[in-house]
Amino acid sequence: MELELLNIRTRPLSLHEFLPCFKQVFHGNDILITMSENNFSHNLSGMIPPPTLFPLLQKLKGAYLVWFEYYPTIPKIHRFTLGQRIDGILVEMIEMTSVAGFTPRQEKIPYVRTAIRKLDTARVLLLVLWETKSLDNKRYIALSEKLEEIGKMLGGWHGQLVKQSSPETASREP
Q1: Residue ranges of the domains in the chain?
Q2: Which pTM value belongs to this model?
Q3: CATH number of 55-172
Q4: Exposed site from 7, 24, 113, 133, fewest CB < 10 Å?
């Protein structure tokens, strides 16, 4: 009734405009070929290589994927507080490390330091989840080991950057 009041006529749409014709159905495999070529995970021919990341980013991605698997299993009381915060921190760590990886040497230190701070925060929040029994021993250990390795890599990178930017090293370089 409302349609009549708006002066809009309801008319059946012609079906032949929407139904595919014989040629489109039986000879239209170009769509399937295009879809299969753009799928990275099923690319067996190796034509399009997956993007490569430097080792630290690869480790961070691996840790995040483990966390992403555990995140839905955390009880609701912590999933939307601590869990959400840990998720955000891990994403920010990936961002800081990625930015540091692609900036000039003299500008890397603040990003690496921020990533280290965020890593320490994530460790403490994971400890709280474990102590409140929201994360079981096996999962806590798996995540902690990954974060420990990432911490060593970040610490080594930071030490190397500080050493390279020290006044002694700067005066020796031509």
Answers
A1: 55-172
A2: 0.68
A3: 1.20.1440.60
A4: 7
